[in-house]
Amino acid sequence: MKALGVKPGDEVLVPSHTAFPTAEAILFADATPVFVDVTDACTIDPEDAVTKISARTVGIVPVHIYGHPVQVDAFQTLASQRRLWMLEDCCQAHGATWRGQRIGSFGRAAAFSFYPSKNLTVMGDGGILVTDDDEIAARGRRLRDHGRVNKDVHTELGFNLRFNDVQAAIGRVLLRRLDSMNARRRAIAARYAQALAGLPIELPREQPGARHVYHLYVIRTPRRQELAAFLKERSIQTGIHYPVPCHKQPAVERLAPPPLPRTERLVEEILSLPISAGHTDAEIDQVAAADTSPAPRSRSATSRWGSRPAAMTSSWRHGRVRYGARRPARRASPTTRCR
Question: Distance between CA atoms of 123 and 102, rounded to whole angstroms?
Fold first, then answer.
């Protein structure tokens, strides 16, 4: 934000449905995050963004959340018409594309994270800012090293954000494998889609023009808590990304952000299933089998998850399941984690 020239009093449009560090960067620049609602794809809604622009708005931070690109064309048009800069948050979308072009190449700059769970990591923490703007690049280099222009001269206050050479070397090796690792994630997503089709859950859908790289495989169901508990009983870890939207965080209460109905409904229904380039087909099949399997006999038969028609007289989707012949419940491998 500082490299882009953001100053106190500026407003920056940002989705509320994102990891809090996206909004945190705006706050650290003493600017104001203006939270925007989401589309059905969980990405920032360009139509709602238009309504949030004011005379103080200077930029937009579209987040390619879960590995799915935003509607890039709409935000490029909006930024051009309103003379706003666009900083892409690509922290979950390494290698994703929009209409065949890599995300991170559309805005004035883009940020990527190398946190260990990301599609591209460096065996530790870190990140990178990419830009074709020489001024932003130069200021970014200063800010990451205490505002230093040479060994002894500091022209502004900066940070200690220097990246070590060992991690950079690891990242260069893994970068060559990124496309194949993303292909594996996409294959896992397709496997889930086939296995879970027909269940009373909403599966992630790739929007026209987008190429999803599935940093996370996020489903939706109003019975999330029940499903998460059901899978946990079978040693399958799930996650929620994210249960508290940014506009509801205590750190921004003083801003009194308005309600965002779609975001607030979304965060009550999302559930992340295990996915990574390292998961095996067998592990993914265990997750899918658990989602569609009958529950142990010791639990009430009126609130079970999934359905297996040959063993049931009524399916889960109708809210009541009765079992006929029961097969022993299979426990998933401890390695079947939500990585």
Answer: 24
Q: What global pTM score does this model have?
A: 0.88
Q: Where are the beta strands (DSSP E) in 6-158?
A: 11-15, 32-36, 57-60, 85-89, 97-98, 101-102, 109-113, 127-131
Q: In Å, how far are 28, 43, 188, 209 from 181, measured between CA atoms?
A: 34, 23, 11, 21
Sign of CA dihedral 206, 70, 270, 53: negative
Helix, strand, coil fractions of the chain, as percent rounded to 5: 35, 15, 50
CATH code for the structural domain at 178-323: 3.90.1150.10
CA distance 73 to 113: 23
> Model confidence over 143-174: pLDDT tens digits?
999 999 999 999 999 999 988 899 999 999 99
Examine the pLDDT at 317 and tell me if it is beyond 50.
no
Q: CA-CA distances (angstroms) from residue 291 to 185, 230, 295?
A: 19, 8, 10
Mean pLDDT confidence for 219-231:
97
* Architecture label for domain 11-175: 3-Layer(aba) Sandwich (3.40)
